[in-house]
């Protein structure tokens, strides 16, 4: 996604007040706006009302099992990578009521599903996260079985991407071909231009809706110099990415041919089976279903909630759980993510955002684990 | 199950879990309507004789008398539910399992000869068959209501046994261990508390005991990398669920 192109037609440059007006214009059009905010020592995604809600002058330092916010000398609004939240929180929600029922006399009445979801604008979607949304689209609404709640929310979503200028040490989007610059699929893509003390945003329209919104804002047409400045942000980001995932076909073959590799035992000794990696992953989509009922026996509800292949009961079938050991759960996760996903969905399940590396309390690094399989093809097979 | 007869009994415990039931407040009227509270001395002096359809048992087994009494209660109960860390793991009083209980008796009581106690504090399930366990110190009011609702509807109660981390992430909280460097027992502790402490920037204290799969050794190594001393690692694993096997084992390799 980092192919250098010509200045995209319709591109414009916004100043900070222009960004504020973008937020205001989305609000006027009936969108709830969700963007990055600083809370509890991390940058999360939550409702925002203005640019004042954005984490100005903050950056993040991430390592396996560690995430810290740090100040920056400038007032950059988007000079960080990704935090513990991902947009799946808003599209593929942690808890979703599928239906409610009530007893009315001798009848069982099913309450109609909730009305249409609110129109929501995501501000600050990273290129890797945009691809993660496409991956979930594929799984949840483009296959044979459609998750209707997801589809309704997805179709009510306006996507404002902010290209990456400050990747974290845990990022590896370049080897997943998902960033650090988005080339399509967004409504508007911004690049924050900070060089030489400026703070402007190069805005590229990606849809008619995006172009119409940009036309409404106070902007000036982007010049070739602005475009080159935006490409320089990307080039610097590319240069700063140190982690790398082995190529998709190599890792797929290595994982699928090594189900009994000694590395699975090795990683199981370090893995806590806590499920954090899957819950922070922007593409992991697994859920379970819970039934609830009132004490008086009159009302009931069925709720779908996030689950994880790292829990024992995830693999429960009649008689017991299939994956009783951490070894088999980790193998399931990593092999599905990096190998079987190709067979199932024609793409990798990994977008290189690095969340599973940073938010693993044990600091397990999926790129290191993957390399152990591709680099040691003839070693460690038990 | 139509209006089952309920008993609530206690063994060695602080009564906090029984208070969680009384603390249901808004739902208490509904609970009282749905079940016949036949024996709950903490709530009412009107104690009805058994048998009971459901008995909630708080506390751990610490005396020879307890051993005999829990068998009688089991025989008098349809379903027996152990509630709280004392009933499910032996409680904080299971610290005696690591020491000489006889010495404590001599040190504490003026007339140790009157005291008949066991060398250990053990969970109810070590003595009789337990149908359900509600973990926690104290139990979660939400889980208690879920269990009662499920029994009434004759459906399986939703009592997940995975880590606290799952609840923490579902709620969108920030990991205190990763983002703050705060040692947290969440990755090895069973959920149920809705990740209460991490929501207040504190590490998990392990009130709900070990999760279904635990790697306490890897977590302890991580705590030590964050600067926790072996003695403090031992202390962390020796609280309300000190007697639970994975925590007991880990505590014994530190200190």
Sum this structure up briefly.
The complex is a heterodimer of chains A (382) and B (255). By secondary structure, chain A is α+β, with helices and mostly antiparallel strands.
Which helices and strands appear, and what pairs or packs with what?
The complex is a heterodimer of chains A (382) and B (255).
Chain A: E1 12-14, H1 16-28, E2 32-39, E3 42-47, E4 58-63, E5 66-71, H2 88-91, E6 95-104, E7 107-111, E8 120-125, H3 127-140, H4 148-155, E9 157-162, H5 173-176, E10 188-193, E11 200-205, H6 208-216, E12 220-221, H7 224-240, H8 248-256, H9 262-270, H10 276-280, E13 287-293, E14 299-306, E15 316-317, E16 320-321, H11 326-345, H12 355-358, H13 366-374
Parallel strand pairs in A: 2-8, 8-9, 9-10
Antiparallel strand pairs in A: 1-11, 1-12, 2-3, 4-5, 6-7, 6-14, 10-11, 13-14, 15-16
Chain B: E1 5-10, H1 16-22, H2 28-34, E2 36-39, E3 52-58, H3 64-75, E4 77-83, H4 84-89, H5 101-108, E5 132-134, H6 141-153, H7 164-170, H8 176-180, H9 216-225, H10 230-237, H11 245-252
Parallel strand pairs in B: 1-2, 1-3, 3-4, 4-5
């Amino acid at each position: 996604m980092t192919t250098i192109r010509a200045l995209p037609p319709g591109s414009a440059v916004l100043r900070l007040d222009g960004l504020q007006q973008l937020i205001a214009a989305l609000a006027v059009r009936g969108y709830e706006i969700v963007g990055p905010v600083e809370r509890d020592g991390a940058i999360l995604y939550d409702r925002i009302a203005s640019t004042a809600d954005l984490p100005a002058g903050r950056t993040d330092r991430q390592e396996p099992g560690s995430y810290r916010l740090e100040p920056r000398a400038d007032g950059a609004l988007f000079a960080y990578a990704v935090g513990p939240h991902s947009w799946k929180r808003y599209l593929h929600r942690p808890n979703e009521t599928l239906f409610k029922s009530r007893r009315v006399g001798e009848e069982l009445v099913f309450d109609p599903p909730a009305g249409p979801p609110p129109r929501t604008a995501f501000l600050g979607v990273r290129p890797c996260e945009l691809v993660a949304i496409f991956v979930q689209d594929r799984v949840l609404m483009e296959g044979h079985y459609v998750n209707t709640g997801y589809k309704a929310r997805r179709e009510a979503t306006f996507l404002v991407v902010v290209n990456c200028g400050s990747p974290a040490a845990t990022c590896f989007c370049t080897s997943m071909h998902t960033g650090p610059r988005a080339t399509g699929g967004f409504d508007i893509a911004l690049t924050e231009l900070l060089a030489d003390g400026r703070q402007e945003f190069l805005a590229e329209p990606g849809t008619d809706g995006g172009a119409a919104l940009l036309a409404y804002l106070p902007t000036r047409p982007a010049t070739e110099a602005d475009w080159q400045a935006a490409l320089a942000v990307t080039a610097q980001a590319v240069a700063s990415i140190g982690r790398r995932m082995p190529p998709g076909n190599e890792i797929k073959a290595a994982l699928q041919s090594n189900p009994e590799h000694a590395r699975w035992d090795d990683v199981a000794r370090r893995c806590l089976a806590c499920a954090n990696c899957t819950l922070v992953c922007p593409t992991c989509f697994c859920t379970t279903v819970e039934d609830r009922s009132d004490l008086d026996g009159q009302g009931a509800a069925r709720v779908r909630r996030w689950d994880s292949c790292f829990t024992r009961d995830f693999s429960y079938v009649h008689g017991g759980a299939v994956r009783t050991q951490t070894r088999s759960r980790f193998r399931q996760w990593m092999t599905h993510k990096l190998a079987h996903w190709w067979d199932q969905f024609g793409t990798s399940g990994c977008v290189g955002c690095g969340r599973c590396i940073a938010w693993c309390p044990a600091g397990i690094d999926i790129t290191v684990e993957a390399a152990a399989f591709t680099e040691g093809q003839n070693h460690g097979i038990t | 199950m139509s209006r089952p007869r309920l008993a609530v009994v206690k063994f060695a415990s602080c009564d906090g879990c029984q208070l969680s039931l009384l603390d249901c407040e808004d739902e208490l009227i509904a609970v009282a309507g749905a079940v016949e509270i036949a024996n709950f001395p903490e709530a009412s002096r009107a104690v009805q004789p058994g048998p009971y359809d459901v008995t909630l048992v708080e506390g751990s087994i610490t005396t020879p008398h307890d051993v005999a009494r829990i068998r009688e209660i089991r025989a008098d109960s349809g379903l027996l539910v152990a509630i709280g860390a004392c009933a499910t793991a032996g409680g904080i009083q299971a610290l005696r399992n690591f020491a000489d209980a006889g010495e404590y008796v001599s040190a504490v009581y003026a007339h140790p000869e009157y005291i008949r106690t066991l060398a250990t504090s053990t969970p109810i399930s070590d003595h009789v068959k337990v149908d359900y366990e509600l973990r926690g110190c104290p139990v979660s009011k939400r889980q208690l209501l879920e269990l009662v609702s499920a029994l009434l509807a004759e459906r399986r109660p939703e009592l997940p046994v995975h880590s606290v981390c799952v609840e923490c992430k579902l709620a969108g909280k920030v990991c205190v261990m990763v983002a703050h460097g705060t040692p947290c027992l969440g990755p090895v502790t069973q959920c149920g508390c809705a990740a209460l402490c991490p929501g207040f920037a504190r590490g998990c204290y392990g009130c709900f005991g070990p999760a279904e799969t635990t790697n306490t050794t890897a977590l302890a190594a991580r705590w030590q990398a964050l600067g926790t001393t072996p003695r403090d690692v031992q202390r962390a694993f020796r609280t309300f669920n000190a007697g639970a096997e994975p925590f007991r084992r880990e505590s014994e390799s530190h200190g």
